[in-house]
Write a structure and sequence with these properties.
Distance between the termini: 36 Å
Radius of gyration: 26 Å
Number of strands: 0
Amino acid sequence: MDLTVVAIPGFFASMAYEARWLKRRAEREGPSPVDYELRDTIASLSMGVGSLIIPPLTAQLFRNFELGRGKWAKPVLGVAGAAALTAVVADAIARAGDQEAGEVPAAPDGPAAADGEALERAGAEAHVDSHEAAAGDLPSRATTEGVDAERSGAPTASRRVRRWARRVGGSAAVTAIASAGVAAAATWAARTSAQRLFKKRVLPDLGGGPLALAAAVLGWDFIYYWNHRLQHESRILWAIHVVHHSSQRYNLSTALRQPWADSLGMFVPYGALALAGIRPNLIETARQINLLYQYWIHTDAIGKLGRWEAVLNTPSHHRAHHGANSRYLDRNHGSILIIWDRLFGTFQPEVDEDPVVYGLTRNIDTYNPLRIATHEHADIVRDVYRSRSWSDRLSFVLRGPGWAYERRAALGAGDAPVPAAVSGDGDERAA
């Protein structure tokens, strides 16, 4: 029996009550960003339904990609290897063309440094050119025609080759990373399942009593904290989790706005609890209890809860977690307990003087469930495609969203300005 399925009537009843209460408050005090909005609510419910259907289907499909067991594992690794080699060759061709044309891309590590170095290099080259011109030592017209043509935008053979090489290299890099990522995620999920790890447990079976269940709930809560934190600090995991933060409203329906792409992530394994002798069925029960607890904290109808604020993750703490304000970015990752955030330096109380602004630092402004579910993955694909080095490509996937948007701006590839609230690898919640 899945407790979250049993609780569905309660979900709808509580949302109806909250919506009525918020409507009455709005009549007295005016509208607020926590009020229900029909299109937003439908989008959240659609994401919730999809989260129940799509992950199990994709997990079943991805079993075919498990290394050593899946029938598609070897072919997909072959595709990944061939694509990676193609990207390396294409990169070399494009780089040779860049050097011939006198163009050097920004260094992959450190956008600011790269920009500074580029400016310094450009200034030095201009200084040398001016002295050569004065001394009459510039190359002949014949030797500079190619460079002049490149700079003027003329469709020279060299430019066409470089353009082709970059397109091939970008497409091949996307294919290589995506193929290897699917195989890695499928293998990781299979090898870290609770059923498999329980057979390898290092502690005796704890049984099925209340103490064993308490250990499962506490252990799940601890692992959840680290997974939730990593989902904010690694872009590929953020691409999965961003769905939950994509609404600019905050009410009980937001709790049901869940991701569809869990099968694509490599998380700290909850199955590790089985190594400590916790039975897989109790681990599953702990998951359900965790989800049920998190539902009720997605509300503005409950204020601060006094002494409980020191131990539990409360609606107040979770409102701060959903804030796009710089003060609240990447804080309060706990599920049931807030003590993990206090212990590991990610706690931030809700501050009355800084009202929470819900949503993303760069909102996507759509109610389309498919777009909500995939927009960050699409952005990652574009960033990898446009990158000219493997360092950048892997960093766009693995490093934090903050780094990604800073780097995109430094490369001049972004279609939007860098959000203001960026302070490191993992503190930028941009879509």
